[in-house]
Design goal:
It contains 15 helices and 13 strands. By secondary structure, it is an alpha/beta fold. The protein has a six-stranded mixed beta sheet. Strands 9-6-10 form a three-stranded antiparallel beta sheet. The chain has a two-stranded parallel sheet with strand order 7-8. Helix 7 links the parallel strand 7 and strand 8.
């Protein structure tokens, strides 16, 4: 099994991901590159890095920062990035079908009783009557790319409301934020650490919860190249064990609140440096605390949710109809539950 070059990977996806949006951090002398978004959902990676869990596992980690999920999948397949944690996308599934990518664990999940991803309306759309997801028919819904998690969420919400949506691909998360603030799109769905500050600032309106439409949604997964999964078992298990320790610290501090107040503040400060490097701590605290969603203990994987997502991508002809769950997921690394 051989990784594709970045150019070959992009060509294999039909040129849909022409701009990878990769910004490698300035740290030098690394052995393992980890893909990340500056999202609270990537907290386990940042915690494992700062607390030395990766180092204890024998890994010298460098972060590759992205602005969307699909380009991260390209970087994994091409070998530029070793491990990553982000949403299932059509690009990732297609790369798995080509034998160059594998899901090896679960991460962020929607859980009843924990504030999760929000459905947003632009102020202009809200004033025109879009006050709940029931009024989504005919509206424009933002996403990064076709086949992204935003596309999946929007489609599932629309189907439940018997609505027709017009999807608008804007490539970067930042571009979607700009579009909904300016009223260029009507609606969007996004993690709470982005949704809540936008709403609190009066830039958008929250009109619903994704969990009401996609319960137990496995929002993000951990993945790597098929070559790494096949040939680097010891390294991969060490990575997952360190990442799992980071997830445990995160859940205790910000989800279950079972950690001490001192520990909670320490986790917030640690995350702020990675997620909001240009903000003062006092400005970063609220979105981090209010944006905490469950990371699966032990990075377990919700098999039923992954299969539902795979079935949707097939039904929309975004991936081949004969791709099997086992083609996408390597369950040898992690517990999977239905």
């Amino acid at each position: 099994m051989k990784s594709l070059t970045r150019r070959a990977t992009l060509a294999a996806l039909g040129g849909a991901l022409a701009t990878p949006y990769l910004v490698r951090s300035a740290r030098a002398g690394t052995a393992v590159n980890v893909g990340a978004l500056r999202f609270v959902s990537h907290a386990p990676s940042f915690i494992a890095f700062e607390r030395g869990y990766f180092q204890e596992a024998g890994l010298d980690v460098n972060f590759d920062f992205f602005e969307a999920a699909q380009p991260m999948a390209v970087a994994i397949a091409s070998g530029d990035t070793d491990y990553a944690m982000t949403a299932i996308s059509g690009g990732l599934i297609s790369l798995a079908d080509k034998g160059v990518a594998k899901v090896i664990g679960g991460a962020l999940t929607e859980e009843k009783g924990i504030s999760g991803q929000k459905i947003l309306a632009s102020n202009a759309a809200y004033e025109a009557g879009l006050t709940s997801p029931a009024e989504l028919d005919g509206k424009t819904f933002g996403m990064t790319q076709a086949g992204s998690s935003f596309h999946y969420m929007g489609a599932r919400i629309a189907a439940a409301e018997n609505a027709e949506l017009k999807f608008k691909p804007l490539q970067k998360t930042g571009a979607v934020i700009g579009a909904i603030k300016s009223g260029q799109i009507d609606a969007w769905s996004i993690v709470p650490h982005i949704a809540k500050p936008l709403a609190d600032a009066g830039a958008v309106k929250i009109i619903g919860e994704v969990a009401d439409y996609i319960p137990d949604y496995q929002v993000t997964t951990v993945f790597t190249s098929a070559k790494t999964a096949a040939d680097e078992g010891e390294q991969t298990r060490a990575f997952l064990a360190a990442l799992s320790r980071g997830a445990e610290d995160f859940n205790a501090a910000l989800v279950d609140k079972s950690a001490s107040e001192e520990e909670q503040e320490a986790i917030v400060a640690l995350l702020a440096a990675h997620i909001y490097p240009d903000r003062a701590l006092e400005d970063a605290r609220a979105p981090i605390v209010n944006g905490a969603m469950r990371i699966n203990a032990g990075l377990s994987l919700n098999r039923a949710s992954i299969m539902d997502q795979l079935d949707w991508f097939k039904s929309e002809n975004l991936v081949k109809a004969d791709i099997a769950y086992e083609t996408l997921v390597d369950e040898s690394y992690v517990e999977a539950r239905s």
